Predict the 3D structure of the following.
Amino acid sequence: MTACAALKEGGSSAPMVIQEQGSFAVGGTVVIAPGTFDPIAHGAFNPANQASEGQTLHGDHAYVFYQKPQKARELPLVFWHGYGQSAKTWETTPDGPEGFQSIFLRNGYPVYLIDQPKRGKAGRSTEPNTIPAKPDDQLWFGIFRMGIGREFFPGVQFSKDPEALDQFFRHITPDTGPLDIEVNINAVSALFDKIGQGVLVTHSHSGGQGWLAAIKNSNIKAIASYEPESNFVFPEGQVPEPIPYVGGQLSARGVPMEEFKDLTKIPIIIYYGDYIPEQPVENPGQEQWRAAYTMARQWRDVVNKHGGDVTLVYLPDVGLKGNTHFPMSDLNNVKVAHLLSEWLKEKGLDQ
């Protein structure tokens, strides 16, 4: 059975052979404090009153964990998480089955998982931040389109086991420093400088950052983006009007045409899940995705008008109903992964 067939039929429980795995930091900066370090006067650890003179601070890097299977395909998949998340997005699903990390390893791809700067295992920031600690699980339950309040949407593909929801809420992790997309883009670009050519797979907030990373680094040979929601990039002079929604508005950004053209040189596919309304509704958790999906359609049309290759897939239109904002964690994630596997094959990215 081919790996692609295994995906289609629901995955495999057979052992995997990992040829190589490891982890490293990439990107980041070093802050150097003025003065002279005194190992006697400054050598005692005192977090409340720690002297910095003459010392360095290494931070704002990304953390990367990678695995390469035997007889690996040529192009790796680089997975980048969304807002409030970490590489855990792509690992074991909240209800226990394999996530995209293992699914695509079984399909022969080297896999790189990113914790972006100031997040997860890349938590060392060069700037301070105040991290709030207030109950907000139901807010995210709605924004992630699982349901409203504590009630799941009818037909939702997310597990209704209370333990699975508990596991999911524990995926959320804060920024340890101020969010800076330029720092994030630079770190991901540095990763592609290190590993060479590959396919970038983004989710949510990293979607728009992914377009900017591809402009910055030509080693990004394709992008698969799950539910991008911000920083859509248009040519200067062709930026659409902001799209209002309950609670805010979604604005795009303009870049010089020379930079925008870089996005027309690579194949791009975008996926959105279910429960996204076509018309304005009262529920803010759904409304921001109506705006994002609307902007994504405009963006697809503009990129393709300039010679690009952008495909936009609304999962219910291809028979996958009930998906949340996290289709890689849903009950049908193998079927969702199969769509990406087939697209990679179609574009000749599976060699």
